[in-house]
Every structure is written in C-alpha cells, then in structure tokens.
Amino acid sequence: MTIARVALVQTRTPASQAAALEHTAPLIEEAASGGAGLIITPEGSNFLQKARPLFEETVTSTEADPFVLGVRALARAHKTHILIGSALVRREDGKCANRSLLVDPTGDIVATYDKIHMFDVDLPTGERHRESNLYTPGEAAVVAPVAHGVLGLTICYDIRFPGLYRRLASAGASILTVPSAFTRPTGKAHWETLLRARAIENGAFVLAAAQGGTHEDGRATWGHSMAIAPWGEVLAAFDGDEPGVLFADLNLDEVTKARAAIPSLLNGREFSGP
Looking at residue 263, what DSSP letter applies? Predict the structure, then answer.
C-alpha cells in the first residue's frame, strides 16, 4: 500500500504578490507541519486583479515574482513539493500566461503548465469573462512525477474538456490537479459533479484547491476545495469559502484497482463520423 499525504490550500488571494504571500505562507506552513508531501494552492495564487491597468502594473516574470520566490523558499525550507496552482506571469515575449508551477523540495521549478482553455463566457447572471484578453493559452499537456505518483497538470476551466484529462491519464498521470477560481454560479451548479466525473472517467485522484470568498478586486469565488478518489468518492472537502488547509491521504494502489475494474483507458477506439 502506497499512501501519500497531500494538502489543498484554499485562499482568498488579494491584489498584490506581497500580500498574497503574506496570506498564503502561514497556510503552507500549516500544510507542511501536518506532514503533506505535496501542497497545492489555487489558480491565481500570486495575485488577482480584474482591472486591466492595475493587472498590467502588477504582473511580472516568473523569475521576479515575489510570491513565486517566497513559495520556492518555503518548499526548500520544508523539503516538500509545492504546486503553485497557477501564477499570473509575464512571458518572455511580453504576453501573459496563467501558469502552474511545480516546485520540488530543493526549491527548483521542475515543471510548468500554461492553461490551455480560456474562460471566455457570458453567464446568465450577467457576468462576462474574457481570459483571452489577458493570457496567451498554452499548447501542451504536461505530466510531472512527484514522490508517490505522476501529476497531470490542469487549471480551472480545463475541467470542462475531458479529452485533456484522458490524454494525461493515458500518459501515466495518477493524480489530476485542478487548481481553480470558479465563479459562484458555476461552482454551485457544476463544481463537484465535474471533478467527480473526471476522477471516475480516468481512474485517477483529482485534487482541486480553490479560491473562495469575495476578493479585494471585487470578484467572488466558490471555494469548496476537495479531493476525489479514483472511484469517485469525495475523500475530503471544505463546505464553504473560508481560507484553510484541507488534508487528504491518498492510497495510490486505488488507481491500479479502479483502472483494472473499469479498463476504459485500454478500451477506447478510434472511430469515424461527424
């Protein structure tokens, strides 16, 4: 039996990197003290800012970002993996990316993933979101090994595109990460259902660290971070949007068991049609 303790950090990220680090560092410390070998933070962990001029003033490169630098130091100090669910960063070409960063126990960034699917929607509530106005979408799926398994990296809106998760599972991912900043209307309607579906379809753990509450920039996020087992059970979940640390112990043998019982990764076939 291979057991891995993980921690999902639920945050209410403010509008600057320094404030975000001050907000998140104690939660990471709590997660590390609780024995987590993998700590995951939400989407937009380094800052959240809806106003375009203020966003442009704040965003910087991965190498210069104070939040990223602070989290790398925490990983090194506690000798643990930390997945920065996403940091909003400036690319070398001057454009921006919504980027997951896997930091190893030495503090090195060992894998990155740029969010592929942009949240460009008009919700029935009147909310309008255009992520493509800010970010350049990624073009590659990413898997990354950690101590007790292989991570498949995704971010938030990716959850609505099951083909990405099947590709990650087929490439060996046993743990699918979904750091998020779900809106309240879509979170209430779809959050748990989508997470459980991706776990069941792929016989994989799904770990979803989320933003929660009303933020400094005025947005409201759903919270309800949760960990899902390969058979679809909810292992651990927050029932609200307050910041905190959610622990889950993963029995990685359950991945093998689920995939043997329902071998859909092996049974898929190519087909023709519309």
Answer: -
